Amino acid sequence: MEATPHIQRILQRLPDSPGVYQHYDAEGTLLYIGKAKSLKKRVASYFGKKTYENGKTRLLVQKIADIRFIVVPTEVDALLLENSLIKEHQPRYNIELKDDKTYPSIVIRKERFPRIHSTRNIIQNGSEYFGPYASAKTMHAVLDIVRKLHPIRTCKYDLSQKNIDAGKFRTCLEYDMGNCKAPCVGKQSQEDYDEGVEAIRTILRGNLKDLIRTYDKAMKDASAAFAFEEAETHKRKKMALEKFQAKSSVVNPSIHDVEVYSVMSDPAAGYVNFMKIMDGGIVHGQTIELRKRLDETDQELLEYGILEFRRRAQLHSSEIFTSIPVRPIVEDVKWHVPQRGDKKRLIELSERNAKYTMLDRRKQQEQVDPEAAQNRIMETLQKDLHLTELPVHIECFDNSNIQGTHPASACVVFKKAKPAKADYRKFNIKTVQGPDDFASMAEVVHRRYKRLVDEEEPLPQLIIVDGGKGQLSSAVSALEELGLMGQVAIIGIAKRLEELYFPGDSIPLHLDKRSESLKLIQRMRDEAHRFSLSHHRKRRSAAALRSALDDIPGVGPATRRKLMGEFGTVDAIKAAEEDALLKVVNLRVAQAIRSWAADQKD
């Protein structure tokens, strides 16, 4: 079944990332929630089929009028988020998933000498819960590891100090096997036991790098000592911990009834993402676009977005997480900007979805109105570089040489933020001897703009020089000599840190690495480098070929091409017998080649 034009545009914009997708009908009713390792591939698989194995799927596809998605870090997160959203919304076509299945978690019980075990029931009694885990096997492997590292009791006794002092208990088989240190009979102190619990808590929170390195070293040491069984044990523990690292950051039972907000923006609009967290699970997620009117700050956009979401959904959570500090615009709410842990990861997830929405809107604009998208990029560049004119016409220069041989340069031209390849120009360096990038840059800039002035062609609004302060100064000197300085803006970009230099300013500008301005500049720099290097390679190849064959009487460009086409290399031509050469050239030229080859051997 073919997708509608609206759906086709959505499919083109979907990210190749794990996530959860939601199908809606024309009335905005949620039809289906699904998970995907790759949103782009999975959602596209619904469309373009002539037949469907399942009649329900065919009916679903017929009704799909819109698709929304939430991006998550891993496939495991997608599975857990899908389960949480289905239970909250119960879409019509998710009938098979309408069950009471819950994923297992690990609990550290709130008691003296706490027990640590698996559970599927979350009880708000002060105990700590970690998870949930999509794989019970992984969870039990982690439990086995932490219990071996720090023996923990498994009995259900009330280990009050009174009961221990009264001698109500005796050691059991777990103590005899080394799985417990018998705090029940006073063989392990409360302090020592709590230290082990704290170490386990650290592991369950995901601080595993040091422990994984420890197991890796122990595995290698055991293997070097030919203790292969011990090495295999360490390897299994290491692999289990690495799998555990993929545990969900989407769900954490300790995070209850919280709203999460983040903001991303460009010069034209802001994108505020909202996620509602209940009992650790994401039950709602959405991003809205806010068009800028007076160059509003991210803080202002985020504050407006929070008020709008709370008005729309009648939200009354007592705690709000935000990606940046905001004013307390709502009373009786705890405001928090998380800096670490699962709360910080929720903010990062929210920011990721706000970013994807922003990029998605840009792709939509490119599909529907390419000219508006180009104008947005140019306006962004003008604002970021403080240009007086809109940079409709931009030119970028790059030099190429190897140890000063065959120096070449190139100029690439972008118009309306797109390559204008017909206007690209190549330069052979004429006045510079040796590897002097500064002098080479001055030469080509002078030649380029002297010609434009002489031919009364329009000048660009921006010149970009591939290089730091030295190359920029050389280009500026060329413009000053032509009397053009001040008529054209010029900057240099240094490769190492992507620093932008302006004439007369020793302090570089660092643009946000995610900004469209920097991406356009980098794209032009890379294109200029490619074009210049290509020209340089052609010059070297041509020079190498000329130096080898051009001294032979009777061998011109056409004959040289025939010889190379037949023999492939100069060495093969040298080794060729006269009979073989006569297939390509006449007797006089063949004899000249044989004479030349003999001289080469001498």
Identify the CATH class of the largest domain: Alpha Beta
List the domain count as a whole number: 5
The chain-level structural class is alpha+beta
Strand content: 15-25%
Mean pLDDT value: 83
Secondary structure: number of strands = 19
Low-pLDDT residue intervals, each spanning 5 or more residues: 96-101
CATH topology of the largest domain: Nucleotidyltransferase, domain 5
Number of helices: 20
What gyration radius follows from the Cα positions, in whole Å?
34 Å
Query: What about the largest sheet?
Result: 8 strands, mixed
First-residue to last-residue Cα separation: 75 Å
Instruction: State the CATH superfamily name of the largest domain.
Output: UvrC, RNAse H endonuclease domain
- Assembly state of the chains shown: single chain
Shape: extended
**CATH level-two architecture of the largest domain:** 2-Layer Sandwich
Helix share, percent: 40-55%
Describe the protein's topology.
Elements: H1 5-13, E1 19-24, E2 30-36, H2 39-44, H3 55-63, E3 66-71, H4 75-89, E4 105-108, E5 116-119, E6 128-130, H5 136-149, H6 161-165, H7 173-176, H8 190-204, H9 209-224, H10 228-244, E7 258-265, E8 269-278, E9 281-291, H11 298-313, E10 319-322, E11 334-336, H12 341-368, H13 370-385, E12 393-402, E13 405-415, E14 418-419, E15 425-428, H14 437-454, E16 462-466, H15 469-482, E17 489-494, E18 499-502, E19 505-509, H16 516-549, H17 557-567, H18 570-575, H19 578-581, H20 587-601
Helix pairs in contact: 5-8, 5-10, 9-10, 12-13, 13-16, 14-15
Q: Short description, anyone?
A:
The chain is of the alpha+beta class. Helices cover 45% and strands 19% of the residues.
